[in-house]
Amino acid sequence: MRQQVAAANWKMNLTITQAEELLNNLLQQSKQLSDHQKVVFAVPFPYLALAQSKVNSHPNYFVAAQNCSEKKSGAYTGETSVEMIHSLGVEYVVLGHSERREYFSESNALLAQKVDMALSYGLTPIFCCGEPLNIREAGTQNSFVEKQLKESLFHLSAEQLAKIVIAYEPIWAIGTGKTATADQAQEMHQHLRAVLAAQYGKETAGIVPILYGGSVKGSNAKEIFSKPDVDGGLVGGASLVAADFTQIIDALK
Ligand code: 13P
User: What are phi and psi of 46, to 5 degrees?
Assistant: First the structure.
């Protein structure tokens, strides 16, 4: 079975004390996961080492950075390199979140460089894509999201693409409480898998997990994850509440 992933995106939230408390809570309640099920905590940079030390003793639990530099190293004040992230034992990095695209002007071309840098250190990119409301209202969401994938990922070999996790996050559903319906998520995920298949073949497209993100909660996760092309979720607000995120982990196929 394809990997199923419950990924927490804490964004810019929590103090170190709150972060430790949340991780302790979640890991204490952690149940035995199947081999194909994974939990990933995308925490702020200052908490990466702490989070990594905590998940080390929990199989199938991982940590992600929320961003990385496209540069290898050097005089880039305030930036964090993939080498630094990798040196902590962290295995994932979230790339291309809509908040980074919007507030930090990250382009598809820049993201292609970040994807390459992450892969060169063996990190798994959780590559985010998704359309704004006006595009959804115009009905052109499929081609919009397709372009994001093509311009940031299609230079990869099939072997490299097989290492990527995609997260489809419609911007109008992020932090709004307005989730896409399970059918809307399935429709887009199916489309994206077909786009991957056209470029890389059915087998490779069938390996890539596609997560849904946007107002996933304990109460709606099961229905959304039940769809055949939805392989888990990338969760913001509800990942900050232990009881809610535990329910989301339990909803993995
Ligand atoms: P919410 O779950 O708060 O809508 O955020 C989704 C998200 O942006 C995860 O990356």
Answer: -65, -15
